Amino acid sequence: MANRQSTDTLQKSSFLFSISDGDLKELEFFCSGISGLGISLGAISQEWQSLTTNRPGDSLTWNELSLTAILDEDFTVFDEIFAFIQKIKDQSSNAIDWNKSFTGVLYITNNKNKRIKKFTLYDCWISSLGDLDFSTDSTDSDIHAVSINVVYDYYTLESIE
C-alpha cells in the first residue's frame, strides 16, 4: 500500500471538460459533478474438468459520461452546447454527419485548481443536453447547472505533474 501524504479532498468545482473536432471552435466548460467513465471487461465461463471457471472477457465496455455543467449568467455555456449538438445534425436536410470525429478531454483538478488527471475521450459526442430547472425560490448561493451526457468509443488516462 502506498504511503499517502495528502489528505486534501477534491473540491466541488474541480472538473473542466472540453470537446473539439479540430474544425469547430473548442467547447469548454466547468462542471460541478461527473458520473461515469466506468469500464467493464466482462467474463467468459470455461469448463475445466468438473469446474466452471471464469476468465477475462474478450471486449471492453465503456460507460457513458454524465456531466453537470455550471451555467453562466449570460447562458453562454448552454448556447454553445446547444449549437455544438446542432452541428452534428443538419437541420435543413435532417441528415446526421456520421463522419464527424470529436475528441473530449476531462481534467480533474485539486483544491488549488491545478490539473492532476486527464481523461482523453476518443470519438466522443454529446448525446443529450438535459432539462433546465429554475425556480424563483433559488438563493444567490445556488449554482444553476444543466446535465449533459457524452458517449465515446474509449478513453486514455494520464497523470499530470
In CATH, the architecture is Roll
Distance between the termini: 21 Å
Class inferred from helices and paired strands: mainly beta
Proportion of helical residues: under 10%
Per DSSP E runs of 2 or more residues, the count of β-strands stands at 14
The shape, in one word, is globular
- Main pleated-sheet profile: 8 strands, antiparallel
Order of helices and strands: EEEEEEEHEEEEEEE
Strand proportion, as a percent range, falls in over 45%
Low-confidence stretches: none
> What is the CATH T-level topology?
Pnp Oxidase, Chain A
Domain tally: 1
Q: What's the arrangement of strands in the largest beta sheet?
A: 12-13-7-2-1-10-11-14
Instruction: Give me the Rg, rounded.
Output: 20 Å
State the name of the first-level CATH class: Mainly Beta
Count up the helices.
1
What is the average of the pLDDT values? Answer: 82
Tell me what you see in this structure.
The protein has one helix at residues 76-88, and strands at 15-20, 27-35, 39-40, 43-48, 51-56, 61-62, 65-70, 89-90, 95-96, 103-109, 115-122, 125-129, 145-151, 154-159. With 161 residues, the chain is mainly beta. The two termini are 21 Å apart.
Features:
mainly beta, eight-stranded antiparallel sheet, 1 helix, globular
List the helices and strands and how they pair.
Elements: E1 15-20, E2 27-35, E3 39-40, E4 43-48, E5 51-56, E6 61-62, E7 65-70, H1 76-88, E8 89-90, E9 95-96, E10 103-109, E11 115-122, E12 125-129, E13 145-151, E14 154-159
Antiparallel strand pairs: 1-2, 1-10, 2-7, 3-6, 4-5, 7-13, 8-9, 10-11, 11-14, 12-13
